[in-house]
Each structure stands twice: as structure tokens, then as C-alpha cells.
Amino acid sequence: MIARPTWIERLHESWRKAPIAWLSGVRRVGKTTLTQQLSGIHYLNCDLPSVRDLLQDPERFFTSMHERVVVLDEVHRLDDPSAVLKIAADAFPQLRIVASGSSTIAATAKFRDTLTGRKREVHLVPVLYAELSAFGITDLKTRLLHGGLPALLLAPALDPEAYSEWLASFYARDVQELFRVEKRTAFLRFCELLLRQSGGMFEVASLARDAAISRPTVMSWRDILETTHLITTVRPHHGGAMREIVAQPKVYAFDTGFVCHARRWDALREDDLGVLWEHVVLETLQSIPLLDIRFWRDKSKHELDFVLPRARDACDVIECKWRPGTFKPKNLAVFREAYPTGRNFVVSPRRTPPITRSEGGLEVTHVGLEQLQALLSHPKGS
């Protein structure tokens, strides 16, 4: 079992604020394995009929508990999951609960109560760049091609059937079961289109045409994929400038391995690496609590990868470059005319200390991804 201390600490941090940690993340991302690294747990798989019977009387069950931590895996399988969690939080304050599932807590109508004030969400993403050494991965390109689901990352060879099987399971367990989407072929074709176009602008009309579905269906299915964490929608940053993109978002797939699978890549070329590196950077940003992640683009097609609004007039900017020498400050300079305050980062797969220098009259810090994570976790010094 590979230790993931960053995520264990995130669970403990959530418990300092509320008794229930809602552990979400896509299927096979490692939620069950992570919970088994906690000490003093009582683990329950709610997929099992015997467990569902046991929790028909939650008060009696929690009264009998000797362990301090209860893990309720696939909690949405219970008849009334919100009632069970509410009883645990209100009547047994000494307990700490991990409730896990692939979707957010509002993904199923079974949740009649959103448990406001009783829960904090911990969203487990695929194996982070900072975790690669713990998994024995020394070549970043392996992570880009295989993706970050532990079993697929550690597979000795790329297995396209494993990705297809995962998507079929995702549809059956996370989509059809929870959302009653009956058009399996059309839905999976829509998923493939989004995976293939990952990192690009979300074009409703072209997606509707290519998937042979209506525009309202495009929006409905996008919401489902966002709820189940298959995609992340990154919205544009704007502050009122006349020529900024203000509505059209970008959509990123949850994992680089599935982007490569959708694009039929069985090996990586040099010009594939930039967009995949951008995905890895986004995953790290998602692992940092409370970040508001945006992108920026204007109608003259000046664009920045990620913008992090920090205060009324301050924004940090992140440009993702597989090779830092390819960075050009033109787009950043246009952005800083409207938003002059904030830090400027160029993040690449480098291991050397951060270097800050003047480029195009702007102060730009070239930094590695682990270093960026540390700097963003301590946002002083704009």
C-alpha cells in the first residue's frame, strides 16, 4: 500500500472543521485504499446488502462502535444516506466519518439533506506530480501517457481495453444508475468528444452536431460529467474590459491517460507534451483548498492558462510550459495592463530553485510544480 500523506492530512484537516469528510473522486482513483491508511477505522462497504441491513438502525449501530473513525464507502447505496450521516454527526459527536462516492453529495435524489455545516469535501484527484516518486515513477512521460489512476499508472504496459472498460463501468455505475441516462452509445460518444477536445473551449453547437444530440442535452450531460468529476469546467476571468471572453468556458478531462486514449495516442510526441502538462498543473491546483481557478482570453486571442483571483484587484497568473524557454511575455503584458497586481509564474517540469527575472518589463518567476504548490499555499508577497 503506497502512503499518500498529503491526502490523509486533508481528511484530518476537514475533521477539524466538521465531523463528516465527504471523499469524492472518480472510480478507482484510490478512495478505498486511502481510507484504509487511516488508523482506528471501522470500514463498511455500502454496496453489500448486509451492510445496508446493518445501517437500517443507524443509532444502534453507532452506539455499538468502539473505533473513532467510520468509513462508509459508496454511501449513496444506502436507502437514506443523508439520515444516517446526520444521525452520526449530531448524536455521536465523538465519531469522525468518511463518506465516499464518485460524485458530489448532491448527485442522487436520495440525499434529502445536504448536511450543511456537518461536512467538508475532499476531492481526491489522480496521482499528483509530487506523488510520483512514492509510486516509483521516474519518467514524467509515463504519467502523462498512462494517466494517474494508480492501477493504470503502475501497469507494465499501456492497455487500451482497460480505459474502455473503465468508461463502460463509469457509465453503468455513476451515470445510468444515479442519473438515469438511457442513451448509452450517444453518452459515451459525447464523453469521447470531450476527452479528445480536453483543454479547449467548450463549443455547444459543434458538440451537439458531432454527438447528434440537442443543445440542452449537451448542457445537461456536461453538468453530469462535472458532478461525477470526469471533467472540470474552468470559467473565464473577466473584470469588465470590453474585449474579454466573459462566458465561454474551457473543459478539461480528469486524467491525461484518458485524453491520450481518446486521441488514440499509444506513444507521445514532443508537440503532445504541452497540453498534457497543462492538465497535470491543473490537477495540482485542484488539490490546493479554496483556489478559484480561471483562465483568461480576449477577442484578439491573447490567452493565459490559469488565473487565480486573490483579492479585489489582485490576480496570480500561471503559464504552463513543458520547456520554459518557449515562454513569451506578450499575452501576460496585455493582461497586466488591466490587472497590474499579482504574481506571474511560468511552471515547468524543473527541479531547480525558483528564478525570478524581468521579462518584457514584468517580474516573472520560473518555478517547478512542487515549488508552485508551496508558494500558492502561502499567498503573501504579491
Largest sheet: 9 strands, mixed
Q: What are the segments in which pLDDT stays under 50 over at least 5 consecutive residues?
A: none
What is the total tally of β strands? 14
Number of folding domains? 2
CATH topology name of the largest domain, in short, is Arc Repressor Mutant, subunit A
% residues in beta strands: 15-25%
Order of helices and strands: HEHEHHEHEEHHHHEHHEEHHEEEHEEEH
- Please compute the radius of gyration using only Cα atoms: 22 Å
Describe the structure.
- With 382 residues, this protein is α/β, with parallel strands linked by helices.
- It has 2 domains: 5-124, P-loop containing nucleotide triphosphate hydrolases (Rossmann fold, 3-Layer(aba) Sandwich), CATH 3.40.50; 130-377, Arc Repressor Mutant, subunit A.
- Helix content is 37%, strand content 20%.
- The protein has helices at residues 5-15, 31-35, 49-54, 58-63, 81-91, 140-146, 150-153, 160-179, 184-196, 204-211, 215-227, 256-262, 273-286, 330-338, 369-377, and strands at residues 20-24, 41-45, 69-73, 96-101, 119-123, 200-201, 231-236, 250-253, 294-297, 303-311, 314-320, 344-348, 355-359, 362-368.
- The strands form 2 sheets. A 9-stranded mixed β-sheet has the order 6-8-7-9-10-11-12-14-13.
- The longest helix has 20 residues, at 160-179.
- The mean pLDDT is 92.
What secondary-structure arrangement, pairings included, does this model have?
Layout lengths: L4 H11 L4 E5 L6 H5 L5 E5 L3 H6 L3 H6 L5 E5 L7 H11 L4 E6 L17 E5 L16 H7 L3 H4 L6 H20 L4 H13 L3 E2 L2 H8 L3 H13 L3 E6 L13 E4 L2 H7 L10 H14 L7 E4 L5 E9 L2 E7 L9 H9 L5 E5 L6 E5 L2 E7 H9 L5
Helix pairs in contact: 6-12, 9-12, 10-11
